[in-house]
Amino acid sequence: MARRSPPVAPILGAPPPLPEGAGAPSSPLSVVAAPRAPSRGRTAFVGTTTTLRLAMTPVVAALALAGQGRWAAVAFALAASTDYLDGYLARRWGVTTTTGSFLDTTADKVLVGGVLIALTSIGQASPWAVMIIVCRELMVMGLRGSVAVTGRVIRSSQLGRVKAAVQFVAIILLLLRVDLRLGPTGIGEWALWLAAVLTVVSAADYLARWAASTLRGSAPRRTA
Fold first, then answer.
1. Three-state SS for 189?
2. 69-119, pLDDT tens digit by residue?
3. Domain 40-215 adopts which CATH fold?
4. Nearest to 119 by CA among 185, 57, 179, 163
């Protein structure tokens, strides 16, 4: 009868033996790579587009006040397009931040409010519609800031995006002085009043989500 060899004591620090049928252990170097940190260059580029929107506000206003409506419309369209560009790139590149989201929406409000005030001063926009829009944007900016200091952000809703798009179209029509009347007023003025109505409705939606996030201490259910 064959003699059994005595059991070998495990070596201190050695890995435990594998059960029968188990494959060879994988290399200790084959580990899951950690997610890459967002590129600083990409983050800076997205921030630059937001800064460009702020810098273009006085340029568009000055052109409108000087009677250069076409050039003002071109400059405004370029500035407004950066709103969609930086949002798309931030999501695609994964560089969305609380500060970036806050500055992005703030730049939109500064651009829209500044150009509308310039249009009102030259008689191209209804003062009442402009007052509604500007007051709403200031109110929402304050509420957004009160949440941002806690490290959170209430993003714009789909309704807010539609409102912003209608505002952009209305401002371009007013800058170009499109001579197309629909009843008692022009198409640009109609678009501006539509933007004012959407501004009020979206403000009510934002207030409801702000209350849910701040007063009840719960995060907003959807992004806006």
1. helix
2. 999 999 999 998 887 776 666 667 766 666 667 777 788 889 999 999 999
3. Four Helix Bundle (Hemerythrin (Met), subunit A) (1.20.120)
4. 57
Q: Which residues contact 154 (CB under 8 A, 6 or more apart)?
A: 143, 144, 147, 206, 209, 210, 213, 220, 224
Helix or strand holding residue 181 (H, E): strand 181-182
- Measured distance between the N- and C-terminal CA atoms of the chain, rounded to whole angstroms: 81
Sequence spans of domains, the chain: 40-215
Helix or strand (DSSP H, E) at 170: helix 158-176
Q: How many residues does the chain have?
A: 224
- Name the pTM for this structure: 0.72
C-alpha pair distances (Å), 109 with each of 62, 97, 113, 114: 17, 19, 6, 8
CB 54 within 8 Å of CB 110: yes
Maximal CA-CA distance, the chain: 114
Q: How far apart are CA 199 and CA 202, in angstroms?
A: 5
User: What is the residue whose two structure tokens read 């849910």?
Assistant: 212
